[in-house]
Amino acid sequence: xxxxxxxxxxxxxxxxxxxxxxxxxxxxxxxxxxxxxxxxxxxxxxxxxxxxxxxxxxxxxxxxxxxxxxxxxxxxxxxxxxxxxxxxxxxxxxxxxxxxxxxxxxxxxxxxxxxxxxxxxxxxxxxxxxxxxxxxxxxxxxxxxxxxxxxxxxxxxxxxxxxxxxxxxxxxxxxxxxxxxxxxxxxxxxxxxxxxxxxxxxxxxxxxxxxxxxxxxxxxxxxxxxxxxxxxxxxxxxxxxxxxxxxxxxxxxxxxxxxxxxxxxxxxxxxxxxxxxxxxxxxxxxxxxxxxxxxxxxxxxxxxxxxxxxxxxxxxxxxxxxxxxxxxxxxxxxxxxxxxxxxxxxxxxxxxxxxxxxxxxxxxxxxxxx
Length: 370
Ligand SMILES: Cc1ncc(COP(=O)(O)O)c(C=O)c1O
Prior knowledge:
2 domains; single chain; TIM Barrel; 11 helices; about 30% helix; binds pyridoxal-5'-phosphate; ten-stranded mixed sheet
């Protein structure tokens, strides 16, 4: 029996990933390490498949949110250093040590348990300690930070590889808040230096800070969004190429008279005779229902609007008088070389950000690497 190939797929361009990595590499220069953030299955692009390309083109580190994401990379043969950015549970520490994953630490209890796990396995556990300078999420506040670093230093089996923070608003045009966070981070660094504590890697910058707040690049930058070819706002200081296209094929076409109601609830009614194409993709694939009667797709070099409610498995587009047939290729996200539908466009329709668009493409959508 031949392999089942679904009629919906996400094409991921490894050439574009490589291009984007090279762009960041040349921006940050040789003195700065590049950490590619591949959490959430590489922002929906496929973590393992893209990681090999990233490493081949100058990425030094990978970062995941979860230990299990990092373990999948190790089992897939990735030997590059990996930092787990999220909060690691007590029952996940053994795995982190066994798979040589650097752990984010921001409180003493987990530091002690990690030390015990490392000693028990006769290994050294790598640690990056996180300070909260204004994001308000994971991380110890700067006032208590020096003591935590001293504690971690004193625990057996632990090696501090880095100290880091995360910016909350580096994509804003007004960088006042980022500058304030930066100042707090600089004070943490000065405090550690005053305690004679030397840290191999200080890091702070995400994609936006790497692009718009260059002083924060320090020893390493943690780039997610930009590596996949998306920008944090409308400014384009370097040339990035979107790596992901979402495609399908027309499943059915029919000619309908004026006054035909389309899909659940009849939220669209044709106002003239027209052709409707049925696409075999729906919200279960990540084509959000919020795009109903809003987004457009590209068929045969033309934009065609999505009409009526997007359903779980099907979506309708009004193709007018275009000669569209079953099996014709449809671009939902991506470009045909002339027209483009970007994750930013979908994000605007949905009142969200481009990150959410690629991350929420479901596992039903096959990723194809080109
Ligand atoms: C701690 C941390 N660093 C870096 C990143 C990468 O951010 P971006 O995708 O904006 O580059 C993230 C992503 O959310 C993060 O949580």
